[in-house]
Amino acid sequence: MLPSGEQIAIAHGDQRAIITEVGATLRVYVKGGVPVVEGFAAEDIPDFARNQVLYPWPNRIGDGEWTFSGRTGSAKIDDVVHATANHGLARWRPFDIEVANQNRCVMSLVLHPLPDYPFISKLTLDYHLGPKGLTTTATVQNLDEVPIPFGLGYHPYFAVTTPTIEGAELTVPANAYVAVNDRKLPTGEILPVAGNNYDFRTTKSVNGHNLDVTYAELNRDDTGMCTVSLKDSKGSNIDVSMDRNFPYLQVFTGDSLPVGRRRTSVAIEPMTCPPDALRSGKDLIILEPGQRWTGSYRIARTS
Known about the structure:
Layout: E1 7-12, E2 15-20, E3 26-31, E4 34-35, E5 52-54, E6 60-62, E7 66-68, E8 71-73, E9 84-86, E10 96-100, E11 104-111, E12 121-130, E13 133-142, E14 148-150, E15 153-155, E16 157-159, E17 169-171, E18 174-180, E19 186-192, E20 204-205, E21 212-218, E22 226-231, E23 237-242, E24 248-252, E25 265-271, H1 277-280, E26 285-287, E27 292-301
Antiparallel strand pairs: 1-2, 2-3, 3-4, 5-15, 6-9, 7-8, 10-11, 11-12, 12-13, 13-27, 14-26, 16-25, 17-20, 17-22, 18-19, 18-21, 21-24, 22-23, 23-27, 24-25
């Protein structure tokens, strides 16, 4: 048995992806034999939230108790340095495989109440490969008898065709960013990107930029999609598009990762809320009993 459980392979044309039973994690995605995401080996456990699904909170939550619907949660700290709990609970749990065919798989998880998150809910993930790339659709259903809060995100690392990201160009159509303290938790301010190093509204090189930034106030096209683009120095381009249900995104250039992983890819992370939302209440999604929420994002190598 592999550490990430059963491996579900899907394909369409020259695209191929592998999703794992544990965490419903995107372990491999290639187009024309070229990696789109920087994945991990079947024998490995994904490090640094590599390509994992982040639920019932994305990013990080601070220490201390929080209360909702008369219930109290307290997330277990896994980042000791910052005294935060990172990236939710679903990423280490086995999912049920509901559908597995040539170009699509559907996986689900019933998350039962835990001290970290004292509610019961169901998360369903639909991975679909098609002419436009890989689309991932998440559906969350409240299985509890009280209203539940949650946030959801993804943590894909996008591969470049060069040894490092030096020389790559990034476009992030965001007008603002979330200010954080030394624990990487929001201060409550959302500041304009204009005039500082976080401004990638116009395409520019990532050289000299150490990014671990939550972006907000995203610009969208007529279909409601916000698209972030990463082009490496050889001209290979990846677009990451998210629908209106993801009003935030994190961009991480990997400068704090160990040697061998540092600045070899860029994480572009769609998020439904900013960090620490379960404690702050900022842009949490709230579902009444039986209610569902759905959101999608898409990855495409365009050149």
